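User: Design a sequence. Structure:
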């Protein structure tokens, strides 16, 4: 191959690594339970917890419980096979449309945004043990050699960095409310000395509420409060379902005294955040501007995530008319993402359920190289 072709091939491999790594992480290799599926149409999707204030106490409890259940679907995949097929038609596998993504990336600067939990690491019972596999870390490191790469997570920035340990990345913690640029320079364009903390004034309040919540949830087995600096996460993954309402009521009782905080939910987690207009979508807009691509037509942002909070980022990309949102999910659900990732063996990649991270990444590299050589 020519040097130019080699460079293009390397870029293809890097994109393939990012996509494949996320897909592999969502495979049965990391799953502790059988595949699950729940279908919700847009008008039937459970409302977020902060919107259920109206109505009777009983109605509020039902709506709240529905919202919490939505983050932990239980129906088997076979129950809604036709709906699943329809959903995949609407949000095709990113692995299956790799050439389409590469075509859109021609002559453009690709920027990669990655969620952490459920995308780069498996969802685990203990959030403090959501470790990143060495092979996954190597894949992300290789991606960052070619493209500006950011981790956008609900975790506090310091904790995400300790999990990932790659100094060349951008890190946006606390759902984008704590952003810092890389300490080692890989890409020349834009401002590397990035630091953004739009919710800084809320830090004393978050610390105070954290201490109150620790006391408030005592007695609910399995409940855990995580201090993510500019937001708090109340995990109920290990809580029996009959205690979910009690937990939500206790959390809401604390927030009554803090009108500047709001309650939302993610995957088996209640999130407490400042009411400022800032989310993962605002975070990627800030990062693109910091990189010098605020109004550029020569950029292709790719955001890969699995959670409800990633929808804000997917929506921004749709509204910009640039880039692709890729939802990592075994569960069909309403999303602003264009593509999806479910299993690492779909389409032409055909990885077996026992394929290791590195084997999957090597397959992606080989396919990318073969495509450019044949082209």
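Assistant: Done.
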């Amino acid at each position: 191959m020519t040097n130019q072709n080699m460079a293009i091939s390397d870029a293809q491999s890097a994109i393939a690594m990012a996509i494949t790594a996320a897909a592999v992480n969502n495979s049965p290799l990391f799953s502790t339970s059988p595949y699950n599926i729940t279908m919700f149409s847009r008008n039937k999707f459970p409302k977020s917890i902060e919107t259920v204030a109206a109505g009777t106490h009983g109605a509020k409890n039902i709506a709240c419980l529905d919202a919490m259940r939505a983050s932990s679907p239980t129906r088997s995949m076979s129950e809604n096979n036709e709906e699943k097929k329809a959903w995949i038609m609407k949000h095709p596998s990113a692995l299956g449309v790799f050439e389409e993504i590469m075509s859109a990336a021609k002559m453009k600067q690709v920027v990669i945004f990655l969620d952490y939990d459920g995308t780069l690491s498996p969802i685990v019972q203990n959030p403090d043990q959501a470790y990143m596999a060495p092979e996954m870390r190597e894949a992300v490191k290789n991606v960052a050699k070619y493209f500006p790469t950011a981790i956008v997570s609900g975790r506090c920035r310091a904790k995400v960095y300790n999990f990932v340990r790659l100094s060349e990345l951008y890190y946006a913690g606390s759902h984008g409310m704590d952003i810092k640029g890389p300490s080692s320079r890989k890409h020349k364009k834009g401002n590397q000395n990035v630091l953004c903390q739009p919710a800084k004034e809320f830090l004393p309040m978050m610390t105070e509420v954290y201490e109150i919540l620790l006391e408030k949830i005592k007695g609910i087995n399995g409940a855990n409060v995580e201090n993510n600096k500019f937001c708090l996460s109340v995990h109920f993954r290990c809580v029996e379902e009959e205690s979910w309402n009690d937990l939500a009521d206790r959390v809401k009782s604390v927030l009554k005294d803090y009108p500047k905080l709001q309650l939302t939910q993610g995957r088996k987690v209640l999130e407490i955040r400042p009411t400022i207009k800032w989310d993962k979508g605002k975070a990627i807009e800030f990062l693109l501007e910091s990189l010098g691509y605020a109004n550029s037509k020569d950029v292709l942002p790719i955001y890969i995530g699995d959670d409800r909070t990633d929808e804000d980022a997917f929506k921004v990309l749709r509204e910009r008319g640039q880039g692709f949102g890729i939802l990592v999910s075994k569960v069909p659900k309403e999303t602003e993402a264009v593509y999806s990732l479910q299993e690492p063996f779909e389409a032409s990649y055909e990885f077996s359920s026992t394929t290791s991270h590195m084997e999957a990444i090597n397959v992606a590299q080989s396919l990318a190289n073969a495509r450019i050589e044949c082209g």
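The CA atoms of residues 135 and 357 lie 6 Å apart. Confidence is low (pLDDT under 50) at residues 1-9, 28-56, 74-78, 343-375.
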